Amino acid sequence: MTDIDVSFVMTVYNKEYYLPSVLKALLNQTGLKNPEYIFIDDVSSDNSVQIIKEATAGLKNVKIVINEKNCGISKSTNKGIALATGEYTRLLDSD
User: Fold this and answer.
1) Residue 19 Cα to chain centre, angstroms
2) Pairing of strands 36-41, 6-12
3) How far apart, in whole angstroms, are the C-alpha atoms of residue 8 and residue 11?
4) Whole-number Å distance between alpha carbons of 91 and 1
5) pTM check: above 0.90
6) Long-range contacts of the stretch 80-84 (C-beta < 8 A, 24+)
7) Interval 63-81: pLDDT, tens
8) What does the chain look like in DSSP terms, one character per residue?
9) What CA–CA distance (Å, rounded) separates 1 from 21?
């Protein structure tokens, strides 16, 4: 059994415009004991990955995966779910 209560899985593809506000809302969630954050980037050509890295710097239980090639949302989502270790998994949109 894991001590992670919720795994948040977010797929990302060129969402730099939306990410600051989405990440702020996600990271300000309350009532969680030990959340996990999993980000699957589908080869974004903008600053999405850098924004995620800056927003999650210093946090524990953060996984940032950058696909080698564009796989699409379904494969990226499945990859994130496979990495999740929490008791519950919550899928999130990046916009």
Assistant:
1) 11
2) parallel
3) 10
4) 21
5) yes
6) 80/9, 80/10, 80/11, 80/38, 80/39, 80/40, 81/9, 83/7, 83/9, 83/38, 84/7, 84/9, 84/36, 84/38
7) 999 999 999 999 999 999 9
8) --S--EEEEEEESS-TTTHHHHHHHHHT--S-SS-EEEEEE---SSSHHHHHHHHHTT-SSEEEEE-SS---HHHHHHHHHHH--SSEEEEE---
9) 33
- What size, in residues, is the chain? 95
CA distances from 33 to 13, 44, 70, 88 (A): 29, 31, 34, 12
16-31 pLDDT, tens per residue? 999 999 999 999 999 9
